[in-house]
Amino acid sequence: xxxxxxxxxxxxxxxxxxxxxxxxxxxxxxxxxxxxxxxxxxxxxxxxxxxxxxxxxxxxxxxxxxxxxxxxxxxxxxxxxxxxxxxxxxxxxxxxxxxxxxxxxxxxxxxxxxxxxxxxxxxxxxxxxxxxxxxxxxxxxxxxxxxxxxxxxxxxxxxxxxxxxxxxxxxxxxxxxxxxxxxxxxxxxxxxxxxxxxxxxxxxxxxxxxxxxxxxxxxxxxxxxxxxxxxxxxxxxxxxxxxxxxxxxxxxxxxxxxxxxxxxxxxxxxxxxxxxxxxxxxxxxxxxxxxxxxxxxxxxxxxxxxxxxxxxxxxxxxxxxxxxxxxxxxxxxxxxxxxxxxxxxxxxxxxxxxxxxxxxxxxxxxxxxxxxxxxxxxxxxxxxxxxxxxxxxxxxxxxxxxxxxxxxxxxxxxxxxxxxxxxxxxxxxxxxxxxxxxxxxxxxxxxxxxxxxxxxxxxxxxxxxxxxxxxxxxxxxxxxxxxxxxxxxxxxxxxxxxxxxxxxxxxxxxxxxxxxxxxxxxxxxxxxxxxxxxxxxxxxxxxxxxxxxxxxxxxxxxxxxxxxxxxxxxxxxxxxxxxxxxxxxxxxxxxxxxxxxxxxxxxxxxxxxxxxxxxxxxxxxxxxxxxxxxxxxxxxxxxxxxxxxxxxxxxxxxxxxxxxxxxxxxxxxxxxxxxxxxxxxxxxxxxxxxxxxxxxxxxxxxxxxxxxxxxxxxxxxxxxxxxxxxxxxxxxxxxxxxxxxxxxxxxxxxxxxxxxxxxxxxxxxxxx
Length: 768
Hints:
By secondary structure, the chain is of the alpha+beta class. It folds into 3 domains: 233 residues, Distorted Sandwich (Beta-galactosidase, Chain A, domain 5), CATH 2.70.98.10; 421 residues, Glycosyltransferase (Alpha/alpha barrel); 87 residues, Immunoglobulin-like (Sandwich), CATH 2.60.40.10. The chain contains 21 helices and 34 strands. Helix 7 packs antiparallel against helix 8 and helix 9 packs across helix 12. The longest helix has 20 residues. The protein is elongated and about 105 Å long. The relative contact order is 0.08.
């Protein structure tokens, strides 16, 4: 039997949270939980007034056992939550048990908040029957849900949130006093009373979905009639069969690796059923309680960077079929000019319009990684060349500079982005050679060598106050907004985004980040390079946080993406918190440095950051705030699970087993760490011009169209005309002889061959 359900669900605070249908990027409910009352006026809401215990029914299977115990120890609610693998239904097997008093003392209600079409507004709810079965319905355009129960309801109602909803009713009256038949076009809630006496507190809830109310009701009733136990058996069986096919690196026998199966399941269940290969960043909405309908994105969409990083987890699992689906998805969603958008809906429609160059470089590295690990059969490798070639064209035309976007990077140079670009150019050069394009291979390697040689010019700062305070001579910074050598970087201040204090600024030379360790991860610098070691000291001094479970790191200096100091949700401003993902990345650095025992300790720390096996995006690093469920070293209100973090964990277990970094590109490691290739080439472009060049260096003039260069070294006494060459990637270039020309000034202009026109102005470069 093959799973055909289009329903995915999440759990939080002991209740069913967002349910996604029919796409994994479209939420259909906000939440669904129980309310308990008694004859003496007691009122208890399951999600806020109980202590929750949540665990998987079986290792690596997203079927959950939930135990919610009343904080006053009056009752206990036991649940199992699964989805029907062949129907669009979420099932909950529930048992209500009094811990004090008799069953007849209590009343139990279900409260459901529809959110059809990714929005709370414009939902219509009503009560009705389907084939004689009483249900609660909601609809918004071509999306619908139906809630059915294995025992008849005592009462049902459809109301508007905040005025006529069931919570207001029960909280005010201690019982359901209202029974509204319909709530039309608004933010609604559906409420029903469950007949506890009829079955001794045991019942099944079936929440069905469809494109109309009949289809939703059909799913709900069909699942009830098929029988919970039979559906449970099929559901668990399919997941167990998939897990059996995977490589687990004997994780069960290792001191670390206890979350291996769970992490594998997290990766798989974030792949869209209807869009093979599309893995969303997280089936959660960070700080969802503070979000409105205008916040449509969340993380339940595809971010190419997260998709590639997650794909490495599938590769470590040896899940070949899953990986091939991902590659096909990447090929399908590549833009015409070769890049991938910052994030997109499942079918490839862009969401944010920003462009991050690493999201074009990383797919090249993924394809190369798959080839390196033997996942791609030799005869199939060449089918990916057109994708790689288009991406290379975009990289060489626009890199190494990252383009301005909406999220975390601005125009200028980002150390993580440039590292991925350099490694991708070398991987692309290998593909070019395999596809009889030696001119492209040569051009990519020469460009990569040039950018790699300039890394220290662009990012390594010396003599700053932070270096002095940290006891080092220098360190790598995260961003170079102006793209000038750090020796020429002015004492400018960066306006820090997303911080509560709008006037928050930081000297450009003090913006540091664990991103700098990407130079090691991508094979550009050795782990014991003195400059890297200096940077590690500065990172630890400024970004390391010691938690009750071990160290964790913030993303960068003055990060503003996280809760406020008092624990209130991120609302466009906040304070960035530590990321467990970065503990995994630091462990990979320790493996590269040969410190395996330290890497194992960090792996254990990362495991301890998990919440019921799920890795959060961020953890809390302030004083405990119990009323906001914030405790040091435990999950914050950010995304959970973060799929990238689970993939990093899987790769980390594989790296520990093999005692080397699983996804380090071989091309760059050999070329720059072992062979220590250095370039003497300087590249001039109109958008990034040089003002001077050393006379012993190699000068290359580049443009995006064919040209003839009219140039002189002696104020036009003697002139030269030279014709550009085609790189094969949409860039045209010309190498000029400037050796033995120290002290002279190169003056040149362009004749654009296709247009038959001159540039109309001269350019100058001083040869020093």
